[in-house]
Amino acid sequence: MSTPPALDTLTRWRLILGESADGACSAAGCTLSSDALAMDASLDWLYQRGEGQDERNLRRQGGREGSRLSTPDWINEIHRLFPKETIERLERDAIERFAIDDVVTNPDVLKRAEPNETLLRAVLRTKHLMSPDILQLARQLVAEVVRKLMEKLAKDMAVAFSGTLDRRRHTRLRSARNLDLRRTLRDNLRNYDPVNKRVTVERVHFFARSQRHLRPWQVILLVDQSGSMVSSVIHASVTAACLWNLPGIRTHLVAFDTQVVDLTKDVEDPCELLMKVQLGGGTDIQQAVGYGASLVETPERAIVVLISDFYEGASEQMLVQRVRALTSQRSLVLGLAALDADANPAYDRDMANRLVAAGAEVGAMTPGELAGWLAEKIGQ
């Protein structure tokens, strides 16, 4: 699980006492960081209700806040900002003290809710608080969001695995992804306008694609299910389901925290799979990599995709050793610090560098970019 923002003593007291302590805080030289301000806004969103204010009056003063939080946004924010024991207390107070039951207890709210990824993340984080009838409604919402994600990714998969790029041949078929940029620039340099610093393109060249004939490959997705990785868990589940239907690829999906859970048998139903995921807890990455290595059948045709923030809670040395063992046997290892629509990573850069030195590739990708990366490696 990712480490919440570190706070000094003055900041902690400022968050406990609230906005009324701003003057004393400033006099003592305490300035709230962006994360501390986000914590303050999340606490105000909840506890100002105890002062008899309705949600319309919960706007923070002085223009420091962003847009007003919805309940799903608030749930996602506190899981990003606070440690596990604080999250549990905040969620309990929200439900028991202030009856904020939008997501976890109110069927009318779930029926009216617009299915989207923000709400999906909130459902996954609070499903353990839901009664069976609410859980059934939540499951329908999860299924709708997953369906939309799969429709989009399936198109990306179809394009990525349509054939390998053949740089020896060209075609008249125009496609941006097949653009031969170097030849196009070379053939049009005579049209360079030095005044406006522009090249007028008259002739555009495109590489051809050869039909793909896949040898059997294994793709082993290892997904960190700590709370900070919830978006990556969602997209990894959808990605695994799309890969499952591709010929010549045997897909495995493994979730881990301090335990390892093989979810491969549920890959065909990503909705059911997500409802089984248990978010939170510690992180034992090396154990998961060891399990992934045990699944490898033909090393030179195996790809291990480790989706994690790389904050190892167990043995860092063993993690590096296990990754090096995989790459030494010619298996491909890709470490993804984020797998979602935005690909905005937050991760342990030192560990990422050590994994690169051990032979892994490390980055952050959207699911479509991952599909393209896999297609390129498999097609080589």
TrEMBL record:
Lineage: superkingdom: Bacteria
Pfam families assigned to the protein according to its UniProt record, in alphabetical order: VWA_CoxE
Name of the protein described by the UniProt record: VWA domain-containing protein
Provenance organism: Pigmentiphaga aceris
Lineage: Bacteria, Pseudomonadati, Pseudomonadota, Betaproteobacteria, Burkholderiales
